[in-house]
Specification:
single chain, about 500 residues, mainly alpha
Length: about 500
Protein backbone atom coordinates (compact mmCIF):
# COMPACT_ATOMS: atom_id res chain seq x y z
CA UNK A 1 0.00 0.00 0.00
CA UNK A 2 2.90 2.32 0.73
CA UNK A 3 4.21 1.78 -2.79
CA UNK A 4 0.80 2.69 -4.26
CA UNK A 5 0.66 5.91 -2.25
CA UNK A 6 4.23 6.73 -3.25
CA UNK A 7 3.29 6.13 -6.88
CA UNK A 8 0.29 8.47 -6.55
CA UNK A 9 2.55 11.11 -5.03
CA UNK A 10 4.91 10.82 -8.01
CA UNK A 11 2.08 11.24 -10.53
CA UNK A 12 -0.20 13.82 -8.90
CA UNK A 13 2.15 16.74 -9.47
CA UNK A 14 1.42 19.73 -11.66
CA UNK A 15 4.40 19.13 -13.94
CA UNK A 16 3.48 15.45 -14.50
CA UNK A 17 -0.21 16.22 -15.18
CA UNK A 18 0.74 19.07 -17.53
CA UNK A 19 3.17 16.79 -19.35
CA UNK A 20 0.49 14.13 -19.77
CA UNK A 21 -1.99 16.67 -21.19
CA UNK A 22 0.51 18.22 -23.61
CA UNK A 23 1.75 14.80 -24.77
CA UNK A 24 -1.88 13.67 -25.20
CA UNK A 25 -2.62 16.66 -27.44
CA UNK A 26 0.54 15.98 -29.44
CA UNK A 27 -0.43 12.32 -29.86
CA UNK A 28 -3.93 13.30 -31.05
CA UNK A 29 -2.48 15.64 -33.70
CA UNK A 30 0.12 13.18 -34.98
CA UNK A 31 -2.24 10.20 -34.93
CA UNK A 32 -4.92 12.09 -36.84
CA UNK A 33 -2.57 13.00 -39.70
CA UNK A 34 -2.52 10.26 -42.38
CA UNK A 35 1.04 9.16 -43.01
CA UNK A 36 2.33 9.74 -39.48
CA UNK A 37 2.25 6.98 -36.85
CA UNK A 38 2.19 6.47 -33.11
CA UNK A 39 5.73 5.11 -33.27
CA UNK A 40 6.85 8.25 -35.08
CA UNK A 41 5.19 10.40 -32.41
CA UNK A 42 7.08 8.54 -29.67
CA UNK A 43 10.36 8.84 -31.60
CA UNK A 44 9.86 12.60 -31.89
CA UNK A 45 9.34 12.81 -28.12
CA UNK A 46 12.59 11.04 -27.23
CA UNK A 47 14.90 14.10 -27.52
CA UNK A 48 12.50 16.09 -25.33
CA UNK A 49 12.47 13.42 -22.60
CA UNK A 50 16.21 13.91 -22.13
CA UNK A 51 15.34 17.06 -20.14
CA UNK A 52 12.58 15.44 -18.05
CA UNK A 53 12.52 13.50 -14.80
CA UNK A 54 11.80 9.76 -15.17
CA UNK A 55 8.06 9.80 -14.32
CA UNK A 56 7.09 12.76 -16.56
CA UNK A 57 9.13 11.21 -19.38
CA UNK A 58 7.36 7.86 -19.09
CA UNK A 59 4.02 9.63 -18.69
CA UNK A 60 4.57 11.51 -21.93
CA UNK A 61 5.31 8.24 -23.77
CA UNK A 62 2.25 6.44 -22.42
CA UNK A 63 -0.27 9.23 -22.98
CA UNK A 64 1.08 10.15 -26.43
CA UNK A 65 0.96 6.57 -27.72
CA UNK A 66 -2.54 5.91 -26.34
CA UNK A 67 -3.95 9.06 -27.94
CA UNK A 68 -2.16 8.49 -31.25
CA UNK A 69 -3.54 4.96 -31.61
CA UNK A 70 -7.08 6.26 -31.06
CA UNK A 71 -6.64 9.38 -33.21
CA UNK A 72 -5.82 7.24 -36.23
CA UNK A 73 -9.53 6.33 -36.29
CA UNK A 74 -10.58 9.93 -37.07
CA UNK A 75 -9.21 10.25 -40.66
CA UNK A 76 -10.00 6.55 -41.21
CA UNK A 77 -13.66 7.29 -40.50
CA UNK A 78 -13.96 10.64 -42.24
CA UNK A 79 -11.70 10.14 -45.27
CA UNK A 80 -10.81 6.41 -45.41
CA UNK A 81 -7.20 7.31 -44.64
CA UNK A 82 -6.05 5.55 -41.44
CA UNK A 83 -3.90 7.86 -39.38
CA UNK A 84 -1.95 4.91 -37.96
CA UNK A 85 -1.51 1.28 -39.11
CA UNK A 86 -3.55 0.14 -36.10
CA UNK A 87 -6.64 1.76 -37.66
CA UNK A 88 -6.16 0.25 -41.12
CA UNK A 89 -8.03 -3.00 -40.39
CA UNK A 90 -11.43 -1.34 -40.02
CA UNK A 91 -11.00 1.92 -41.97
CA UNK A 92 -13.27 0.70 -44.79
CA UNK A 93 -15.98 -0.19 -42.26
CA UNK A 94 -15.74 3.22 -40.56
CA UNK A 95 -15.80 5.10 -43.87
CA UNK A 96 -18.82 3.11 -45.02
CA UNK A 97 -20.68 4.34 -41.93
CA UNK A 98 -19.69 7.92 -42.75
CA UNK A 99 -21.05 7.53 -46.26
CA UNK A 100 -24.34 6.39 -44.73
CA UNK A 101 -24.47 9.49 -42.51
CA UNK A 102 -23.47 7.65 -39.33
CA UNK A 103 -20.04 9.14 -38.69
CA UNK A 104 -20.93 10.12 -35.12
CA UNK A 105 -21.85 6.50 -34.31
CA UNK A 106 -18.54 5.16 -35.64
CA UNK A 107 -16.44 7.88 -33.99
CA UNK A 108 -18.37 7.62 -30.73
CA UNK A 109 -17.74 3.87 -30.68
CA UNK A 110 -14.05 4.49 -31.40
CA UNK A 111 -13.72 6.85 -28.42
CA UNK A 112 -15.66 4.73 -25.94
CA UNK A 113 -14.30 1.29 -26.76
CA UNK A 114 -10.75 2.55 -27.26
CA UNK A 115 -10.82 3.84 -23.68
CA UNK A 116 -12.44 0.66 -22.34
CA UNK A 117 -9.94 -1.50 -24.22
CA UNK A 118 -7.04 0.50 -22.82
CA UNK A 119 -8.40 0.19 -19.29
CA UNK A 120 -8.83 -3.58 -19.72
CA UNK A 121 -5.25 -3.94 -20.95
CA UNK A 122 -4.08 -1.82 -18.02
CA UNK A 123 -5.95 -4.05 -15.55
CA UNK A 124 -4.24 -7.12 -17.02
CA UNK A 125 -0.90 -5.31 -16.85
CA UNK A 126 -1.42 -4.52 -13.18
CA UNK A 127 -2.76 -7.89 -12.04
CA UNK A 128 -1.02 -10.48 -14.18
CA UNK A 129 2.15 -8.93 -15.61
CA UNK A 130 4.71 -11.44 -14.29
CA UNK A 131 2.63 -14.54 -15.13
CA UNK A 132 1.58 -13.43 -18.61
CA UNK A 133 5.06 -12.26 -19.51
CA UNK A 134 6.44 -15.65 -18.53
CA UNK A 135 3.91 -17.40 -20.80
CA UNK A 136 4.75 -15.13 -23.73
CA UNK A 137 8.45 -15.62 -23.14
CA UNK A 138 7.91 -19.38 -23.45
CA UNK A 139 6.85 -19.04 -27.08
CA UNK A 140 9.30 -20.66 -29.48
CA UNK A 141 9.49 -20.58 -33.27
CA UNK A 142 6.81 -23.32 -33.44
CA UNK A 143 4.23 -21.13 -31.71
CA UNK A 144 5.18 -18.09 -33.76
CA UNK A 145 4.76 -20.07 -36.99
CA UNK A 146 1.20 -21.03 -36.11
CA UNK A 147 0.42 -17.51 -34.91
CA UNK A 148 1.64 -16.03 -38.20
CA UNK A 149 -0.20 -18.65 -40.26
CA UNK A 150 -3.39 -17.99 -38.30
CA UNK A 151 -3.01 -14.29 -39.01
CA UNK A 152 -2.65 -14.98 -42.73
CA UNK A 153 -5.69 -17.25 -42.63
CA UNK A 154 -7.61 -14.32 -41.17
CA UNK A 155 -6.82 -12.37 -44.34
CA UNK A 156 -9.30 -14.61 -46.18
CA UNK A 157 -12.07 -13.32 -43.93
CA UNK A 158 -10.84 -9.71 -43.92
CA UNK A 159 -11.05 -9.45 -47.72
CA UNK A 160 -14.73 -9.11 -48.49
CA UNK A 161 -16.03 -10.32 -51.82
CA UNK A 162 -14.15 -12.88 -53.87
CA UNK A 163 -11.81 -15.16 -51.86
CA UNK A 164 -9.69 -15.52 -55.01
CA UNK A 165 -9.05 -11.78 -55.11
CA UNK A 166 -8.28 -11.88 -51.41
CA UNK A 167 -5.67 -14.57 -52.03
CA UNK A 168 -4.16 -12.54 -54.88
CA UNK A 169 -3.79 -9.59 -52.52
CA UNK A 170 -2.32 -11.83 -49.81
CA UNK A 171 0.27 -13.32 -52.18
CA UNK A 172 1.27 -9.81 -53.28
CA UNK A 173 1.94 -8.93 -49.66
CA UNK A 174 3.92 -12.15 -49.09
CA UNK A 175 6.00 -11.41 -52.18
CA UNK A 176 6.83 -7.93 -50.87
CA UNK A 177 7.85 -9.44 -47.52
CA UNK A 178 10.44 -11.66 -49.27
CA UNK A 179 12.32 -8.74 -50.84
CA UNK A 180 15.80 -8.03 -49.47
CA UNK A 181 18.63 -9.79 -47.69
CA UNK A 182 16.88 -10.13 -44.33
CA UNK A 183 15.99 -13.82 -44.64
CA UNK A 184 17.24 -17.02 -42.98
CA UNK A 185 19.67 -17.75 -45.84
CA UNK A 186 20.99 -14.18 -46.02
CA UNK A 187 20.67 -14.25 -49.81
CA UNK A 188 19.48 -11.15 -51.73
CA UNK A 189 16.05 -11.83 -53.20
CA UNK A 190 14.10 -9.81 -55.76
CA UNK A 191 16.44 -6.81 -55.40
CA UNK A 192 17.21 -6.57 -59.15
CA UNK A 193 20.60 -5.09 -58.38
CA UNK A 194 19.15 -2.17 -56.41
CA UNK A 195 21.09 -1.63 -53.18
CA UNK A 196 18.12 0.15 -51.55
CA UNK A 197 16.10 -3.05 -51.76
CA UNK A 198 18.71 -5.05 -49.84
CA UNK A 199 17.13 -3.84 -46.60
CA UNK A 200 13.68 -4.91 -47.75
CA UNK A 201 10.53 -2.85 -48.03
CA UNK A 202 9.73 -0.64 -45.04
CA UNK A 203 6.21 -1.22 -43.81
CA UNK A 204 5.40 2.43 -42.99
CA UNK A 205 5.99 3.87 -46.52
CA UNK A 206 4.14 0.87 -47.97
CA UNK A 207 1.16 1.47 -45.67
CA UNK A 208 1.14 5.18 -46.44
CA UNK A 209 1.19 4.40 -50.15
CA UNK A 210 -1.47 1.69 -50.11
CA UNK A 211 -3.97 3.66 -48.06
CA UNK A 212 -3.27 7.40 -48.16
CA UNK A 213 -1.38 7.89 -51.44
CA UNK A 214 -3.79 5.66 -53.36
CA UNK A 215 -6.65 7.86 -52.16
CA UNK A 216 -4.77 10.97 -53.29
CA UNK A 217 -4.23 9.43 -56.74
CA UNK A 218 -7.89 8.43 -56.95
CA UNK A 219 -8.99 11.95 -56.01
CA UNK A 220 -6.69 13.54 -58.58
CA UNK A 221 -7.90 11.11 -61.26
CA UNK A 222 -11.51 12.04 -60.44
CA UNK A 223 -10.81 15.77 -60.63
CA UNK A 224 -10.91 16.41 -56.85
CA UNK A 225 -14.70 16.26 -56.33
CA UNK A 226 -16.35 17.11 -53.03
CA UNK A 227 -16.25 14.53 -50.24
CA UNK A 228 -18.59 11.68 -51.10
CA UNK A 229 -20.34 11.63 -47.74
CA UNK A 230 -23.83 12.55 -46.69
CA UNK A 231 -22.87 14.62 -43.69
CA UNK A 232 -20.41 17.45 -43.20
CA UNK A 233 -21.16 18.00 -39.51
CA UNK A 234 -20.98 15.62 -36.59
CA UNK A 235 -23.97 14.76 -34.44
CA UNK A 236 -23.75 13.68 -30.82
CA UNK A 237 -21.04 10.99 -30.50
CA UNK A 238 -22.36 10.16 -27.01
CA UNK A 239 -25.69 9.07 -28.43
CA UNK A 240 -26.31 5.35 -28.19
CA UNK A 241 -23.32 4.48 -25.97
CA UNK A 242 -25.51 2.56 -23.54
CA UNK A 243 -27.14 0.60 -26.37
CA UNK A 244 -23.77 -0.26 -27.91
CA UNK A 245 -22.38 -1.51 -24.59
CA UNK A 246 -25.46 -3.66 -23.89
CA UNK A 247 -25.72 -5.09 -27.41
CA UNK A 248 -22.05 -5.64 -28.24
CA UNK A 249 -20.50 -6.44 -24.87
CA UNK A 250 -19.38 -9.94 -26.04
CA UNK A 251 -17.50 -8.38 -28.97
CA UNK A 252 -15.91 -5.84 -26.67
CA UNK A 253 -14.74 -8.47 -24.18
CA UNK A 254 -13.44 -10.71 -26.99
CA UNK A 255 -11.57 -7.77 -28.53
CA UNK A 256 -10.09 -6.83 -25.16
CA UNK A 257 -8.86 -10.36 -24.51
CA UNK A 258 -7.53 -10.87 -28.04
CA UNK A 259 -5.79 -7.50 -28.10
CA UNK A 260 -4.15 -7.95 -24.71
CA UNK A 261 -2.99 -11.49 -25.54
CA UNK A 262 -1.50 -10.43 -28.88
CA UNK A 263 0.03 -7.30 -27.35
CA UNK A 264 1.88 -9.39 -24.78
CA UNK A 265 3.55 -11.42 -27.54
CA UNK A 266 6.86 -9.73 -28.36
CA UNK A 267 6.82 -8.14 -31.81
CA UNK A 268 3.09 -8.43 -32.43
CA UNK A 269 1.54 -5.12 -31.37
CA UNK A 270 -1.67 -3.19 -31.95
CA UNK A 271 -1.61 -3.52 -35.75
CA UNK A 272 -1.88 -7.32 -35.79
CA UNK A 273 -4.34 -7.22 -32.88
CA UNK A 274 -6.71 -5.03 -34.91
CA UNK A 275 -6.46 -7.25 -38.02
CA UNK A 276 -7.06 -10.48 -36.13
CA UNK A 277 -9.89 -9.05 -34.03
CA UNK A 278 -11.72 -7.65 -37.06
CA UNK A 279 -11.45 -11.01 -38.81
CA UNK A 280 -12.68 -12.83 -35.69
CA UNK A 281 -15.60 -10.44 -35.37
CA UNK A 282 -16.69 -11.15 -38.91
CA UNK A 283 -16.14 -14.88 -38.55
CA UNK A 284 -18.26 -15.24 -35.40
CA UNK A 285 -20.87 -12.62 -36.24
CA UNK A 286 -24.52 -13.59 -36.65
CA UNK A 287 -24.73 -11.09 -39.54
CA UNK A 288 -21.43 -11.40 -41.45
CA UNK A 289 -23.08 -10.12 -44.62
CA UNK A 290 -23.29 -6.63 -43.06
CA UNK A 291 -19.51 -6.34 -42.77
CA UNK A 292 -18.08 -3.96 -45.34
CA UNK A 293 -21.33 -2.02 -45.58
CA UNK A 294 -20.85 0.10 -42.46
CA UNK A 295 -21.42 -2.25 -39.51
CA UNK A 296 -20.37 -1.06 -36.05
CA UNK A 297 -19.85 -4.58 -34.67
CA UNK A 298 -16.44 -5.11 -36.29
CA UNK A 299 -15.36 -1.59 -35.36
CA UNK A 300 -16.10 -2.16 -31.68
CA UNK A 301 -14.13 -5.39 -31.46
CA UNK A 302 -11.06 -4.22 -33.37
CA UNK A 303 -10.82 -0.75 -31.81
CA UNK A 304 -11.03 -2.41 -28.38
CA UNK A 305 -8.24 -4.79 -29.39
CA UNK A 306 -5.66 -2.30 -30.64
CA UNK A 307 -5.86 -0.15 -27.50
CA UNK A 308 -5.79 -3.20 -25.22
CA UNK A 309 -2.71 -4.43 -27.10
CA UNK A 310 -0.94 -1.15 -26.36
CA UNK A 311 -1.06 -1.83 -22.60
CA UNK A 312 -0.38 -5.54 -23.10
CA UNK A 313 2.86 -4.74 -24.92
CA UNK A 314 4.22 -3.23 -21.68
CA UNK A 315 4.05 -6.60 -19.89
CA UNK A 316 7.18 -8.14 -21.46
CA UNK A 317 8.77 -4.67 -21.68
CA UNK A 318 8.58 -3.99 -17.95
CA UNK A 319 9.07 -7.50 -16.58
CA UNK A 320 11.77 -8.82 -18.93
CA UNK A 321 12.95 -5.83 -20.96
CA UNK A 322 11.60 -7.41 -24.16
CA UNK A 323 9.65 -4.94 -26.33
CA UNK A 324 6.11 -6.00 -27.14
CA UNK A 325 5.97 -3.63 -30.11
CA UNK A 326 7.91 -0.84 -31.81
CA UNK A 327 6.62 1.72 -29.30
CA UNK A 328 7.87 -0.15 -26.25
CA UNK A 329 11.17 -0.77 -28.06
CA UNK A 330 11.72 2.99 -27.96
CA UNK A 331 10.37 3.27 -24.42
CA UNK A 332 12.84 0.66 -23.11
CA UNK A 333 15.70 2.85 -24.31
CA UNK A 334 14.24 5.83 -22.43
CA UNK A 335 13.79 3.70 -19.29
CA UNK A 336 17.47 2.75 -19.37
CA UNK A 337 18.46 6.39 -19.82
CA UNK A 338 16.39 7.33 -16.77
CA UNK A 339 17.84 4.59 -14.57
CA UNK A 340 14.63 2.52 -14.56
CA UNK A 341 16.22 -0.61 -15.98
CA UNK A 342 13.40 -2.98 -17.06
CA UNK A 343 13.39 -6.41 -15.48
CA UNK A 344 12.18 -8.30 -12.40
CA UNK A 345 14.43 -6.22 -10.13
CA UNK A 346 12.53 -3.08 -11.13
CA UNK A 347 9.52 -4.40 -9.20
CA UNK A 348 11.71 -4.94 -6.14
CA UNK A 349 13.92 -1.84 -6.21
CA UNK A 350 11.46 0.75 -7.59
CA UNK A 351 7.91 -0.44 -6.86
CA UNK A 352 6.69 3.14 -6.57
CA UNK A 353 7.80 3.81 -10.17
CA UNK A 354 5.93 0.72 -11.39
CA UNK A 355 2.74 1.87 -9.67
CA UNK A 356 3.25 5.33 -11.11
CA UNK A 357 3.30 3.77 -14.59
CA UNK A 358 0.07 1.90 -13.83
CA UNK A 359 -1.61 5.09 -12.59
CA UNK A 360 -0.51 7.02 -15.69
CA UNK A 361 -2.06 4.33 -17.89
CA UNK A 362 -5.36 4.71 -16.05
CA UNK A 363 -5.27 8.52 -16.29
CA UNK A 364 -4.38 8.45 -20.00
CA UNK A 365 -7.25 6.12 -20.90
CA UNK A 366 -9.77 8.03 -18.78
CA UNK A 367 -8.62 11.32 -20.34
CA UNK A 368 -9.11 9.78 -23.79
CA UNK A 369 -12.89 10.25 -23.55
CA UNK A 370 -13.05 14.06 -23.02
CA UNK A 371 -9.96 14.79 -25.13
CA UNK A 372 -11.11 12.37 -27.83
CA UNK A 373 -14.57 13.94 -28.04
CA UNK A 374 -12.96 17.35 -28.43
CA UNK A 375 -10.70 15.97 -31.16
CA UNK A 376 -13.73 14.60 -33.04
CA UNK A 377 -15.25 18.05 -33.33
CA UNK A 378 -12.01 19.40 -34.74
CA UNK A 379 -11.64 16.41 -37.08
CA UNK A 380 -15.00 16.93 -38.76
CA UNK A 381 -13.83 20.37 -39.83
CA UNK A 382 -11.75 18.52 -42.43
CA UNK A 383 -14.94 17.76 -44.34
CA UNK A 384 -15.63 21.48 -44.81
CA UNK A 385 -12.37 21.97 -46.69
CA UNK A 386 -12.48 21.57 -50.48
CA UNK A 387 -10.56 18.52 -51.62
CA UNK A 388 -8.42 20.60 -53.97
CA UNK A 389 -6.99 22.32 -50.86
CA UNK A 390 -6.87 19.39 -48.43
CA UNK A 391 -5.44 16.75 -50.76
CA UNK A 392 -2.15 18.65 -51.38
CA UNK A 393 -1.74 19.04 -47.61
CA UNK A 394 -2.32 15.31 -47.10
CA UNK A 395 0.16 14.58 -49.88
CA UNK A 396 2.71 16.77 -48.10
CA UNK A 397 2.24 14.89 -44.82
CA UNK A 398 2.50 11.56 -46.66
CA UNK A 399 5.81 12.61 -48.19
CA UNK A 400 7.13 13.83 -44.84
CA UNK A 401 6.02 10.62 -43.10
CA UNK A 402 7.56 8.37 -45.75
CA UNK A 403 10.81 10.35 -45.78
CA UNK A 404 11.11 10.48 -41.98
CA UNK A 405 11.24 6.70 -41.58
CA UNK A 406 14.90 6.51 -42.66
CA UNK A 407 15.52 10.15 -43.64
CA UNK A 408 15.81 8.96 -47.22
CA UNK A 409 14.09 9.69 -50.53
CA UNK A 410 13.87 5.92 -50.93
CA UNK A 411 10.89 5.92 -48.57
CA UNK A 412 9.11 8.48 -50.76
CA UNK A 413 9.72 6.34 -53.87
CA UNK A 414 8.31 3.30 -52.06
CA UNK A 415 5.26 5.30 -51.04
CA UNK A 416 4.61 6.35 -54.65
CA UNK A 417 5.04 2.80 -55.96
CA UNK A 418 2.65 1.35 -53.41
CA UNK A 419 0.26 4.24 -53.95
CA UNK A 420 0.00 3.31 -57.62
CA UNK A 421 -0.30 -0.38 -56.67
CA UNK A 422 -3.10 0.38 -54.20
CA UNK A 423 -4.92 2.49 -56.78
CA UNK A 424 -4.76 -0.27 -59.40
CA UNK A 425 -5.83 -2.93 -56.89
CA UNK A 426 -8.92 -1.04 -55.85
CA UNK A 427 -9.79 -0.20 -59.45
CA UNK A 428 -10.04 -3.97 -60.01
CA UNK A 429 -11.84 -4.65 -56.69
CA UNK A 430 -8.83 -6.39 -55.12
CA UNK A 431 -8.86 -5.74 -51.34
CA UNK A 432 -5.83 -4.04 -49.83
CA UNK A 433 -6.11 -5.46 -46.30
CA UNK A 434 -4.77 -8.98 -47.08
CA UNK A 435 -1.79 -7.43 -48.86
CA UNK A 436 -0.89 -5.38 -45.80
CA UNK A 437 -1.25 -8.42 -43.54
CA UNK A 438 1.03 -10.42 -45.85
CA UNK A 439 3.70 -7.72 -45.60
CA UNK A 440 3.43 -7.64 -41.80
CA UNK A 441 3.50 -11.40 -41.18
CA UNK A 442 5.53 -12.68 -44.14
CA UNK A 443 8.95 -12.46 -42.48
CA UNK A 444 7.72 -13.94 -39.21
CA UNK A 445 6.15 -16.88 -41.05
CA UNK A 446 9.27 -17.70 -43.05
CA UNK A 447 11.79 -17.25 -40.25
CA UNK A 448 9.78 -19.23 -37.71
CA UNK A 449 9.18 -22.05 -40.20
CA UNK A 450 12.84 -22.37 -41.22
CA UNK A 451 14.03 -22.15 -37.60
CA UNK A 452 11.50 -24.78 -36.52
CA UNK A 453 12.46 -27.16 -39.32
CA UNK A 454 16.13 -26.88 -38.35
CA UNK A 455 15.28 -27.58 -34.70
CA UNK A 456 13.08 -30.55 -35.62
CA UNK A 457 15.49 -31.93 -38.23
CA UNK A 458 12.73 -31.78 -40.85
CA UNK A 459 10.08 -33.55 -38.73
CA UNK A 460 6.72 -31.84 -39.39
CA UNK A 461 5.07 -33.54 -36.42
CA UNK A 462 7.27 -31.39 -34.15
CA UNK A 463 4.92 -28.49 -34.88
CA UNK A 464 2.30 -30.27 -32.75
CA UNK A 465 4.48 -31.72 -29.99
CA UNK A 466 4.56 -28.65 -27.72
CA UNK A 467 1.21 -28.10 -25.94
CA UNK A 468 0.74 -24.44 -26.91
CA UNK A 469 2.00 -25.03 -30.45
CA UNK A 470 -0.32 -28.01 -30.83
CA UNK A 471 -3.32 -25.99 -29.66
CA UNK A 472 -2.50 -23.11 -32.01
CA UNK A 473 -1.95 -25.60 -34.84
CA UNK A 474 -5.36 -27.20 -34.37
CA UNK A 475 -7.02 -23.77 -34.22
CA UNK A 476 -5.25 -22.66 -37.40
CA UNK A 477 -6.24 -25.79 -39.30
CA UNK A 478 -9.84 -25.27 -38.18
CA UNK A 479 -9.72 -21.71 -39.50
CA UNK A 480 -8.70 -23.09 -42.89
CA UNK A 481 -11.04 -26.08 -42.90
CA UNK A 482 -14.28 -24.64 -41.51
CA UNK A 483 -14.92 -22.35 -44.52
CA UNK A 484 -14.35 -25.28 -46.88
CA UNK A 485 -16.70 -27.44 -44.83
CA UNK A 486 -19.31 -24.68 -44.86
CA UNK A 487 -19.00 -24.28 -48.62
CA UNK A 488 -19.47 -28.03 -49.12
CA UNK A 489 -22.57 -28.04 -46.89
CA UNK A 490 -24.07 -25.12 -48.79
CA UNK A 491 -23.38 -26.84 -52.11
CA UNK A 492 -25.05 -30.07 -50.89
CA UNK A 493 -28.01 -28.10 -49.59
CA UNK A 494 -28.38 -26.31 -52.92
CA UNK A 495 -28.17 -29.62 -54.79
CA UNK A 496 -30.96 -31.17 -52.69
Amino acid sequence: MNAVLAGLELVLRWDVILTILVASAFGLVVGAIPGLTATMAIALLVPITFFMDPIPAVGAMISCSAMAIFAGDIPATLMRMPGTPASAAYSDECYAMTRKGEAEVALGANVLFSALGGLFGTAVLIVSAPLLAEIALGFSSFEYFWLALMGLACAIFIGSGSPVKGLVSLFLGLFVAQIGIDNPAGVPRFTFGNSNLLGGVDFIPAMIGLFAMSEVIRTIAAGAPDWSVRQTSLGNPLKGWGRLIVKYWPQQIRGNITGTAIGILPGAGADIAAWVSYAMSRKFSKTPEKFGTGHVEGIIESTSANNAALAGAWVPALVFGIPGDSITAIVIGVLYLKGLNPGPTLFLNNPESIYAVFIIFIIANLAMIPLGLAALKAGTALLRFPRRILIPLILLFCIVGAYAVNNSAYGVVLMLVFGILGFLMEEHDIPIAPCVLGIVLGKMLEESFVTSMIKADGNLLAFFERPIAGGLGVMTLLVFCLPLWGALKRRRAAAT
